[in-house]
Amino acid sequence: MTNRKVHILTRERFGKLLLGPQIRLERLAQEFTSQGFEAFIYGHLCGNDFDHENRIKPLRPGFTKDIQPSDIVIASELLQARPCNELLSSNLRFHWDCYGLSLPETLSFQGTWPFLKSLADRRRKLVRYRTLASRAESVWVSNQGQGTFLAALLATSPSSFESNAASSFPKKTVLAPMGSRSESFPIGAPNPYPTPLHGRPIFLWGGGIWPWFDLNTVFDAMARTKDAPEAPCLFFISGRNEATSDYDAPLSEAISLAKSMELLDTNVFFNSGRVSSSELAPWLEHCTAGIMGSPATLESNLSWRTRYLDLLWAGRPLVASGDDPLARRMANEGAALVVEAGNGEGLAKSILQYASRRQEWLSACSASKRVAESTIWSKTLQHAVQRTIQTPPTKSRLPGVPPITKLRYVLGI
Amino acid sequence: MSSRRYWHFHYGKIQTVVLGPHLRAMEMAITARDCGLEATLVVDDPTGVQIPGVRQVARGSLSLNEIQPGDAVVVSDAAAARIPWQLARKGLAFHADSYGMALPELVKIYPSWTARHAWKDRIRRCLKFGFISRYAEKIYLSHDAQLFLLAGTVFSGRTTTDSSTADSLAEKVLYIPMGVSSPSTSADLPNPYPESIRSRRIFLWGGGIWAWFDTPTLIHAFDRIRDTDAVLFFISGQDHSGLAIHQKALESTRTLAREMGLLGNNVFFNDRSVGPSDLPAYLQHAWSGVMANPRCLEAESSWRTRYLDLLGAGLPLVVSGRDPLALRMESGGAALLSSAGDINGLASNLRKLTQDSSLKSQMGAAAKSIGSKMHWNTTLAPLRDVLQDPNSFQVNANRPPLNWLLRYAFASITPKWNS
Question: 3-class secondary structure for B250-284?
Fold first, then answer.
């Protein structure tokens, strides 16, 4: 056991229901622990028995006092302003885990959020991204595009320090996308889908319905396959989203759209309840493939769709309209059929291809398993963890954050 | 002849020494001409090299009233910023040819400018890219890394519209990289290299030495393969940019080679100026091309046109540090790629290629094969499609405000926050 400790700073809340970001932090802590480090996660506790190993600490003011200059500090993407400010003022060296890059998603909320909320959120993210990207020792991203996007934000910064950091920014970036589970996929559980769907090819929408997806194309494809003898159906696993209007609106719209196209409960089905990650396996086992509709947007191009990782774990392929980095990778390896954004006819053909040609489907399932082997957590986090361990502690001072930048952040301008 | 006409807003004067941007503008105009459109290149000085069937007019003498709705209008990146603004104000649809994306080169050289000059340039680039992203009907880029670069630049803009524009950029973009020119037909050209190295295996650095390259790694790698027959030849031994930062890079490369005792033995700098017509001979008698990229934004968003010469000539490439075209050549078997700054890796690849003639032939054939799929005719196919699409170049109903031009004009007096 080394005497260097690892401190992972996040704004996440830890409870019984583990979502992607918490799972990532858990895996990250495990990776460091397996390398002989004592790892702590600083976040928000939910007051349950989740933290049975006492590794989660509350992120309270003064948290940097517990951290030694030689320790490893990892700041997660959306660490709030207060701890960020304390971290930057402490002059501790840190690595920035920016794998989610939620900024492009925010763009898609334009029009659903009030104007000022939208503007302030965007400007704050811009200030935060530039500040952290220019001062971090390394920046962890999910794909190359995210790194280039961040570099462009730096290149156009009004600060010379940040702008000058843009040129060599690729040296700092480390690919560390979300990974798939390494434990073997449990098979043989009873079919959880509604009984009328048993025996039909099920195309699983394996996560929430967010405003930035392209459901029109997916429904267009389902309408085109409505009378096919294979009778493929689309199943939305997430019956409800977050309990906020801007997150629930897309689900209501999807139900209305399915109804207006006379697809609801014949070819398109919505789950009545919510499925937690521990309940996911049978839904994956009994589906034919995953399905996705991505528009030609920046969000799609910079995304890393974690719902595909579940498909990889289960050895199930994907049909998709619209390009995104993980879908492209799966398609290159024979684990997905991807057509261009908005091509409902092409997506319908892909659906029928997996629904009707068993050999092709089996081959795609095998390819999906192969991709899974290269995307398990220990492999996706390997470079970031090694780079972090190998970065020697330095004592040189980081440039401070100017008061005008702090003011801009507070005002959201 | 189509009723649609083609207008290409370019800059400068089409010279005998055809530089990349001019070559591109010419090839695009020729494509339009071959599609049956009356093609016009709008330049600062129309008295340069004339292209059959392509008219050249001076920007100052052209009235935008001559352009009709539905005409195909392309604006080069280097054209004045007011041109796209004027086109949009008149409701004329235009396409922006932004294949070069100079920002990554500039962030490397900004530190050599005054803070105010660099700041003004950054502001203007943000404004310009924000403008074309919103008002251009299509934007031509070289590859997808440039999309993310453009999106980040646009996102940094000041208005809410800039950010929604950034999200939809992917729909607007067409990928039209620089293409491979038809190779010279001359079978046997005289060897242009210094006599002392003619029988050796020449690794050709086929362009200028710019400040963002990693020549020290290359020089050190050649030091490690002194025992071989390999020789490094910089085709451009003099600086033609006129910029101190590039002159410094050239001089420090020469100094390093001298200090290591390689200059005139294993490393040579051409003392002659090489025009495009001289290039085929240098390529014909070279063993391979060579390049050294640092891990930097410039390399990752570049499209190294000097490799296109190698592809046209069927020559392999040895390169340290990735860039998009090098990656494509490597995956096609035409390049040996090592990590940025990895002297041993680069030296090992140079040695391998120096000593293996069959590998050279095999990689050369792969280069030829890749090159055959990247001729201008192929890379300009998306342009041909839009020129022939009756739905393209529709009236631009979105008129820009006057204050955009004012913001651009007065960028130099915008307060600097903390530069």
Answer: HHHHHHHHHHCCCECCCEEECCCCCCCCCHHHHHH
